[in-house]
Amino acid sequence: MKLYQYLGCPYSAYVREEFSKMGLIAGKDFELVEARRGTPGREEVVRLGGKNQVPFLVDGDTQMYESRDIVTYVRQKLAS
Ligand SMILES: N[C@@H](CCC(=O)N[C@@H](CS)C(=O)NCC(=O)O)C(=O)O
């Protein structure tokens, strides 16, 4: 899983915090991709998902914007 995000974004922070509560470790269980405006990561977000917005999750064929949807998706994935 790749989570496109940046430090000053509160929605990104929410997802990082929830991932941490689930016991997920960046660099091990998922990849954190820097995606503030003007970065290659942000260009990838727009290219892949078509929207200029973070957080953005890519998990195989699944792509998702919206912090709450991302948290719900990963929680359900871990539970299954
Ligand atoms: N409803 C979205 C809001 C996400 C959002 O507003 N993200 C901001 C950054 S914190 C964004 O991408 N703004 C456009 C930009 O930074 O270019 C969510 O919950 O994920």
Automatic annotation (TrEMBL):
Positions of the GST N-terminal domain: 3-77
PROSITE patterns per record: GLUTAREDOXIN_2
Domain of life where this protein originates: Bacteria
InterPro entries: Glutathione_S-Trfase_N, Thioredoxin-like_sf
Coiled coil regions, renumbered to chain: none
Protein name: Glutathione S-transferase N-terminal domain-containing protein
Gene source species: Leptospira ainlahdjerensis
